[in-house]
Amino acid sequence: MNAFDGTDHAKAAAGGPWVLRDYALIADGERGALLDPRGGIAWLCAPTWHSGAVFSGLMGGPGRFRVGPADHWNVWGGYYEDGTLIRVSRWVTTDTVISCREALAAPADTGRVVLVRQVRAERGEAVVDVDLDVRADYGRQAMTGVHRREDGLWRAQSGPLHLRLAGVDNPHVDDDGGLTARLRLPEGETHDLVLEIATEPQDAPLLPRALWDATERWWRTAVPDCSGTAAPRDTRMTYAVLNGLTSTHDGMVAAATTALPERADTGRNYDYRYAWIRDQCYAGIAVATHGPHRLLDRAVGFVADRILEDGPRLRPAYTVDGRPPPAEHSLPFIGYPGGGDRAGNRAGRQFQLDAYGEALQLFAAAARHDALDARGVKAARRAAEAVAESWEEPEAGLWELEERWWTHSRLSCVAGLRALEQQNLTRASGDWARLADRIMDATRARCLHPDGYWQRAADDPGPDAALLLPLARGAVPRTDPSLARTCSEVLHRLTEDGYVYRFHHGDEPLGDAEGAFLLCGFMMALASQALGRREEALRWFERTRSACGSAGLFAEEYDVRQRQLRGNLPQGFVHALLLECSARFGGGQGGPALEGR
After folding, report:
1. I need a labelling partner for 76 at 20 to 30 A (CA). Which of 248, 442, 481, 518 fits?
2. Cβ(269)–Cβ(71) under 8 Å?
3. Distance CA 105, CA 195 (A)
4. Mean pLDDT on 498-518
5. Cross-strand bridge partners of residue 404
């Protein structure tokens, strides 16, 4: 049944859309929900990340689950409980203060979403509206068969999904099948709501206290002590985000959303609900910088499995359970303003050489912690063999552009091969060192500019901020003048107001074609640290980590002039590089932790 009509756009727009910095995330590894300032779930796909959305208000589509003050004259705020993605939303009205503690229950079940929300009357009597309308398959499936069983739970279906709701006694059933109710709580009281969305009918009790206890225990084990880092609170938040984005299949999605615009009406809006090999390597390497942790093992396991299965045909991106992402296709939405209406991703069919280099660096980082098993060693050998076979060929590169001889890809492979050789993992280690030298000699001949800095490609003399990362990670010795000269070129040509851009888009001024790339800001910090410029590194780190939303989440880009987030949210690889910087710059790396967050 296709239940999506034009009236749904008006209903979705009634609560937004909001600028991206105003959204918060709750996630359990299998899926993530974006919360808006009025207590609505603006986006949630079920049962997993790349499934159809059941709440699509973020994109102007149907489906809603709002729990918030009946009095719309209020101001909104909120915070995360430290080291978790348990969110506490908070509203101040003319005469009350209301909070709502909310989370996706953990540990997660791949076929079952459980959303727990606990309303509290902090001051005065709380009058709270509840509005639920689940619309599976991006709004195409209405909520049908709404009824109440003897156990007090409300049940319904939306397409193939089975729904149960606890905590609402006498709701009104709307003509479109949705449920609405009004709660009244005396000061100091709480009220629990539990929504379950499952692929199969469920009969287990929905017990709020038990669900909260299990979720709290899960988060306590998921996030390690970060007191020795440069920014302990932000680092714990980063661990929470990375855990929330990582499935029990070990794949980590690049972001929770699709088609949010990097620049309004330019067509640059993509579906990031898939696991990019490169992004997961960044996360694993960052964790290894801090210390051994389950996220490192999961990154190694997922990347090793993909390399052993696909070898020289490694895809840049997969679903979190290791399948190819679907081709791009349109959704039945108006889309986020300035964005699009697409799902699926064509990058899954590209060849990106640098993914092998990042995988080699990940395996070497794991080996330093004695966390690389025989399967990982075999995957490292396969990755090195793939580099040997294909390093001379044009490919799409880090930025997923046209196929060219991109410098960054070659330098990433050199850094990975040298890191692998240092760990002496296989009898072929000497061969990998010689291969690294051969790639470096050819790349230096073709891609080192006469002025001494590394240029973007063999046929493009401009700088690219992404080159800073492999240079900082050992593609060249830290005393090699090309590292300092590349940093200088990026500084003078690709920075503005303390933020770093990727590269120049033709003759357009910085900031006109796209926002500052937050990943590159952290790369500049790492490169400065590699040069021994600690104070400069800390300045880049502090400036870049300031470019988050009020919930502490980073998008891919930051519009410096408008001070707005751009692109999909939250961007996993930005959080990963924050973690790496914080670990390298903290007390454990030769200096005290910074004050503040």
Report:
1. 518
2. no
3. 10
4. 94
5. 395
Measured CA to CA, the distance from residue 117 to residue 42 in angstroms comes to 15
Name the DSSP letter for residue 115.
E
**Which distant-in-sequence residues (6+ apart) come within 8 Å of 264 by Cβ?**
337, 338, 339
**Contacts of residue 55, Cβ cutoff 8 Å, sequence gap at least 6:** 33, 40, 41, 42, 43, 44, 63, 64, 65, 134, 135
Q: Which residue has the tokens 């980073």?
A: 554
Report residue 550 CA to chain centroid gap. Answer: 16
Whole-Å CA distances, 25 to 135, 140, 166, 559, 572 = 20, 24, 22, 21, 12
Q: Do residues 146 and 199 touch, judged by C-beta distance below 8 A?
A: no
Is pLDDT above 50 for 589?
no
Tell whether the model's pLDDT for residue 425 goes beyond 90: no
Question: 64-84 burial by CB neighbour count: b if 16+ within 10 A, else e?
Answer: bbbbbbebeebebebebeebb
pTM over 0.90: yes
Tokens (6 digits) for 258:
């699709």
**Do 271 and 326 form a contact (C-beta atoms < 8 A)?**
no
Determine whether 278 is exposed, middle or buried from the number of CB atoms within 10 Å of its CB (0-12, 13-18, 19+).
Answer: buried
| Three-class SS state of 410 | helix
HEC string for 21-80: HHCEEEECCCCEEEECCCCEEEEEECCCCCCCEEECHHHCCCCEEEEEECCCCCEEEEEE
Region 578-596: mean pLDDT is: 67
pLDDT band at 219; cut points 50, 70, 90: very high
- CA-to-CA distance for 523 and 366, rounded, in angstroms? 21
Report the range of poorest mean pLDDT among 493-502, 552-561, 583-592.
583-592
Three-class SS string for 321-355?
A: CCCCCCCCEECCCCCCCCCCCEECCHHHHCCCCHH
Q: Hey, what amino acid is at 492?
A: H
Q: Which residues pair with 185 in a beta bridge?
A: 126
Q: Could you tell me the sign of the dihedral formed by the alpha carbons of 334, 337, 338, 344, in that order?
A: negative
The amino acid at residue 431 is D
Which of 103, 162, 144, 100 shows the shortest CA–CA distance to 126?
100
Q: What is the pLDDT of residues 234-279, one digit of tens each?
A: 999 999 999 999 999 999 999 999 999 887 656 667 899 999 999 9
Using an 8 Å Cβ cutoff, are 18 and 336 in contact? Answer: no
DSSP state of 270: -
Both structure tokens of 527: 């490169």
**Which DSSP string corresponds to 420-477?**
HHHHT-STTHHHHHHHHHHHHHHHHHHHB-TTSSBPSBTTB-S--GGGHHHIIIIIS-
Section 118-132 average pLDDT = 97
Query: 588 pLDDT exceeds 70?
Result: no
- Only one residue has tokens 């101001």, namely 75
Tokens linked to 226: 């970060």
Residue in this structure with the two tokens 């049944």, named with its chain if needed: 1
∠ CA 317-319-321 to the nearest 5 degrees? Answer: 125
For the cut 60, the answer to whether the pLDDT of residue 597 exceeds it is: no
The SS3 assignment for 542 reads helix
* Buried-state track 222-232, b at ≥16 Cβ within 10 A, e below 16: bbbebebbbbb
